[in-house]
Amino acid sequence: MKRSASENFGQILIVLLLALLCVSVLYPFIYMLAISLNVGSDAAKGGVYLWPRHFTWDNFNVVLGNAVIRHAFGITVIRTLVGTASGLLITLLAAFGLSYRSLPLRGTLLGYVLITMLFNGGLIPFYIQLHQLHLLNSFWVYIVPTAFSAWNMFVMMKFIIGIPEALIESAELDGASPLRILWSVIVPLSKPMLAAIGLFTGVMHWNDWFAGAFYVSDQNLIPVQTFLQQLLSAQDLASVLGSNNNVEALVRGTVLTNITLMSIKMATVMVSAIPILCVYPFLQRYFVKGVLIGSVKG
């Protein structure tokens, strides 16, 4: 069917608006990449916007050659893997159990979980609770408090309830236990939903700097995002180098005058952002489908 002039104009306007939105999202990333690949002293003069004027790997050599940053990066990777796996497992077990309508006190349990979504005790009581559980200044302060998500549990439960009961009943008639039903029936049918929620959980763990800044005082336990937050709040490069007590390792093989605090910041942002961005293409086919099914299907 032939489109009218107004429809063609509307399509062109939509394309232009979407293109403008893409540019506004991509440009800051491109700008930071250009700064990180440019000689720091030259970038400080200005004029570097889309591509490096004087290309160099010095900034990345400094960042990736620093033992403190590498260790923080390793903490982030381990935290993301362990936190995502434990969060999916514990939340899925709770959602599967509460999906049984015949479960005793099911309404009371659901109401209790719902209350935790609406109200919380605040930061200070939460800090005291972490202290009493001996989680402060330990790796498990990243894992245990986030092992269960009420919102994710309701999304999972909604999805599980939408699975035909005949599949579960047939498995029960064959003598399958609840755990066998969960592993052999629920999990294979829930891959899109689990992929979407796993992506949300993994991004949350990867991007979180708050826990490392306020619940951990040991520099050997801080994730890379907390280190980046400390780096971004620094006023000069000397303070950053001195705070890490690793000046020689940080600048070994690099001309110190070629790097600046801004170039190191941009390189650190790239190193911390690129890995999680690479995960999206592999989960894209599950992402939208999982969110829609888990939110709408009843």
From TrEMBL:
Q: Which residues form the ABC transmembrane type-1 domain?
A: 73-268
Q: Which Pfam families does the entry link to?
A: BPD_transp_1
Keyword Transport assigned = yes
What is any one GO biological process for this UniProt entry? transmembrane transport
Query: Which terms in the GO cellular component ontology are assigned?
Result: plasma membrane
The parts of the chain that form a coiled coil are: none
SUPFAM superfamilies noted in UniProt? MetI-like
Reading the lineage from the top rank, the first entry is Bacteria
Subcellular location(s) per record:
Cell membrane
Bilayer topology term: Multi-pass membrane protein
Q: Is Signal there in the keyword field?
A: no
Question: Cross-referenced InterPro entries, in alphabetical order?
Answer: MetI-like, MetI-like_sf
For this UniProt record, the keywords arranged alphabetically read as follows:
Cell membrane, Membrane, Transmembrane, Transmembrane helix, Transport
Q: What residue intervals traverse the membrane?
A: 12-34, 72-97, 109-128, 140-161, 181-206, 259-283
Q: Which family does it belong to?
A: Belongs to the binding-protein-dependent transport system permease family.
Protein name per UniProt: Carbohydrate ABC transporter permease
Q: Which organism is the protein's source?
A: Cohnella zeiphila
